[in-house]
């Protein structure tokens, strides 16, 4: 079974490697323009020639995935064979478009990718058994609250959000790692209180609801996270936290009561925030009608809509569009660049990859051996799916802009490393599902 799992994984990695090679070759056709952009960003004569730079980073990226797959086979790791190739495909696409859009950021992304792959390797080696993590739920809550508070006092503001910490030469976004701590806390708490939350201990209008002791810590954790993130102006992350909270509570209890109450709280909180906080009002106004603000705050979303519309079905071709007209296109608006140059079909292909990731994650959750790991897999998968939906909905103007990154594709070191940690934990659960931990004794 182990040989078949890794063989299937390797066969998919062949396709990803070929895909990355084709993308790099296509970029080569536009060498003069890209070479000038590279020299302008980094300074001519101070770095490797552009195409050595592209080829070395591309080889290093795929070599990292290949080596981890080979190590897993030697170590007897029985994880899902599809999740890592899906991740490799998304990462390769992100690297291609960083070469295309912001060559100077591709080098940094590659460095963060190596850190992410190292984190993936360590987690799948040292944390194959996850049951013991259920005993530390309040440590996760305390650590998460601390990580959220630190940027308020010591953080730096970027793109309108005060959520960054500078540590030496690096900048990290603690909220990316708090997402995982939130999932661990909720999985542990919900697994412990699942029966009470489902059956309820009190009655209101004939509806069974849990007592304050059962749902109190959940509401407190959600409220603290939401309030702190409002003060940080990082509304995208706050929305992800809230939706993940609702998804996990529903998965644990199967009661629509919690979802309805959560939606009411969301609309009430959103209405209050709109009238109190200027940055919330600005985001909503841009979402409703950006055209009067075309010369200012509405410029980014308008250029995104132009890019989406000009791509058509098949796109303008890699390197042939004008996505650089979108400010910060390499971060949360990279999906608009993909659709402009690869077309509607290319954008749909990206969505299918994310849907495959979510499908495999939910299958792992359904097959998990206990409530804690099942809820953890559900939460991690919901986190990935919600972040993807919220950012794509923002760039196509279905929702207000949020400023979160597209997982594995957008530039962002903290997000990339955190998503590899998420991937490693999902793979560990799938290893247990496939009987991996039993064969190790």
From TrEMBL:
Q: What is its main location?
A: membrane
Q: Name one Pfam family in it.
A: FTSW_RODA_SPOVE
- Coiled coil region boundaries: none
Q: Where in the cell is it found?
A: Membrane
Instruction: Give the CC-aspect GO terms.
Output: cell division site; plasma membrane
Query: What membrane topology does the annotation report for this chain?
Result: Multi-pass membrane protein
At the top level of its lineage, which domain of life is listed?
Answer: Bacteria
Q: List all membrane-crossing ranges.
A: 12-30, 50-70, 82-103, 109-126, 138-154, 174-191, 212-229, 235-252, 257-277, 297-321, 342-368, 374-396, 408-429
Quote the InterPro entries the UniProt record gives. FtsW/RodA
Listed under GO biological process in this entry are: cell division; regulation of cell shape
Q: Name one GO molecular function term.
A: lipid-linked peptidoglycan transporter activity
Which keywords accompany this UniProt record? Cell shape, Membrane, Transmembrane, Transmembrane helix
- The protein's name: Cell cycle protein
Identify the species of origin: Desulforamulus profundi
